[in-house]
Specification:
Blueprint lengths: L2 E5 L3 E2 L5 E8 L7 E7 L6 E6 L5 E3 L7 E6 L4 E6 L8 E8 L6 E3 L3 E5 L2
Parallel strand pairs: 2-11
Antiparallel strand pairs: 1-3, 3-8, 4-5, 4-9, 5-6, 7-8, 9-10, 9-11
Amino acid sequence: QVQLAESGGDLVQPGGSLRLSCAASGIIFSVYTMGWYRQAPGKQRELVATLTRGGTTNYADSVKGRFTISRDNAKNTVYLQMNNLKPEDTAVYYCNARHPFNRDNYWGQGTQVTVSS
């Protein structure tokens, strides 16, 4: 059974930082492209960042220079370091695991990030 367990969401002031974690089980983690997506109230889910098994990253323009995605294959965990947070970053953040060669695609339950003074 595949599980993606996010953690690290919190209430933070504008300009603050958070680090999200996603621990994966039930997959060969090192093979998968790992990603973070977010969904704000009333909006569609959108890509935040992805990281392939080869180390290639892709970021949404809105987070470039502020967010960093990384992975630890030994711990089956992907991280999202978020700096200089803005109110518009408020959303539920979801972890995603996508196999590069087949249709396997998994989601976590999400973790809430709220940026507010």
